[in-house]
Amino acid sequence: MKIVDIFVLAGTGYVSGLSIASGFLFQAIRKFNQHAWSKGKEALWAAAAITNIVLGTLMPVLFIGIVVVGDQPDRADFWPRAAIFAAGAIAGAALVFFGISQVSKGVRAIVGRGA
């Protein structure tokens, strides 16, 4: 495996981890702003959340198919490639969860303990 392959696998895994975990950030944004939103803003948020759900679930599957498996479904180096992709996905998701914990601390400080 070339170094470029490793960067592509880790990078697509990282982006996948970000997209998978970003739904939790959408929920934190909604919780922070729910008292000030109108019906129109709530509908826009729902449309954005649905788009995020669709892309956040489909893109990692497509990335696995394109980057990890590629044009060789029975490749000998599948598991190392899958492990690099998974490590990138875990790193991306960990960043989002760390960011959400920081946002939640700020929301609790502003809104109060009910947040």
From TrEMBL:
<feature type="transmembrane region" description="Helical">
    <location>
        <begin position="6"/>
        <end position="26"/>
    </location>
</feature>
<keyword id="KW-0472">Membrane</keyword>
<feature type="transmembrane region" description="Helical">
    <location>
        <begin position="47"/>
        <end position="70"/>
    </location>
</feature>
<feature type="transmembrane region" description="Helical">
    <location>
        <begin position="82"/>
        <end position="100"/>
    </location>
</feature>
<protein>
    <submittedName>
        <fullName>Uncharacterized protein</fullName>
    </submittedName>
</protein>
<keyword id="KW-0812">Transmembrane</keyword>
<keyword id="KW-1133">Transmembrane helix</keyword>
